[in-house]
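Consider the tokenized backbone below.
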């Protein structure tokens, strides 16, 4: 797979492990281009029997995926194009997570930095996630923008952490450290930052080296849950909140005050709370 085919991803493959590095500076927001490129590369990999494991990481040590681009509503042509090619019964944001959840390969997130909103949904969609204890963070920031998660987050969280903790994550909109996320079951485990690369590489290589048929049998025996009804309900609730004037005011106010810049994203929760006040 040629790296020059993508503008927001770096893709390589060796010994049965494909590595996708997310690279959309300055803070790795999920925009229409990244969603389109992720769909392309994951669909291509799904048909590649030589690849058994996919590892996602970030080119930015601070931000795995900051969140969905807060200006994405200005790119209606690109969104309509994505919607036209999305599977039935999911929106364009949910389509990314569902593609990851149903990928035939084992999908692993290596989380060194922060993942909020759509970035946190991305992490929860993967089969496994391992994070740097000192630097990683996860949060569903949407409530502070006047909306709810709309990319599968409510459904993925409930499956991972249970209803009570999913409500805590969604309604506090806090940034959770890696050790708390691991204790909740949101990720597999938190590791010392200087051990993360080696650990994930070992897991990926060991899985890729399993005898033929083992990965397929395991994923067939442990299938991804059918979330069709829940995703439809989430989309309806997200669309209803997104259309409210308060949401538009909060989003535009956040952008004005520094959201989607490295400085603003380091404490996005504080920034958005100050906008609300």
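A designed sequence for it:
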């Amino acid at each position: 797979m040629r790296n020059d085919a993508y503008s927001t991803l770096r893709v390589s493959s060796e010994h049965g492990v494909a590595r996708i590095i997310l690279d959309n500076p300055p803070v790795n927001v999920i925009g229409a281009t990244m969603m389109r490129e992720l769909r392309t590369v994951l669909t291509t990999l799904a048909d590649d029997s030589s690849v058994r494991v996919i590892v996602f990481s970030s080119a930015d040590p601070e931000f795995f995926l900051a969140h969905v681009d807060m200006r994405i509503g200005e790119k209606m042509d690109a969104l309509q194009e994505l919607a036209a090619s999305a599977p039935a019964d999911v929106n364009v944001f949910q389509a990314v997570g569902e593609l990851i959840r149903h990928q035939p390969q084992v999908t692993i997130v290596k989380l060194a930095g922060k993942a909020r909103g759509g970035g946190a949904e991305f992490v929860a969609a993967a089969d496994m996630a391992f994070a740097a204890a000192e630097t990683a963070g996860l949060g569903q920031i949407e409530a502070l923008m006047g909306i709810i998660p709309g990319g599968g987050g409510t459904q993925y969280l409930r499956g991972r952490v249970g209803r009570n903790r999913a409500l805590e994550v969604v309604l506090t909109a806090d940034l959770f450290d890696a050790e708390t996320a691991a204790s909740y079951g949101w990720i597999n485990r938190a590791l010392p930052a200087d051990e993360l690369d080696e650990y994930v590489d070992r897991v990926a290589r060991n899985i890729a080296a399993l005898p033929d048929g083992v990965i397929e049998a395991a994923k067939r025996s442990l299938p991804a849950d059918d979330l069709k009804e829940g995703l439809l309900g989430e989309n309806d609730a997200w669309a209803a909140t997104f259309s409210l004037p308060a949401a538009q005011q909060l989003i535009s106010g956040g952008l004005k005050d520094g959201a989607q810049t490295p400085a603003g994203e380091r404490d996005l929760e504080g920034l958005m709370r100050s906008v609300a006040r």
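The two ends are 48 Å apart (CA to CA).
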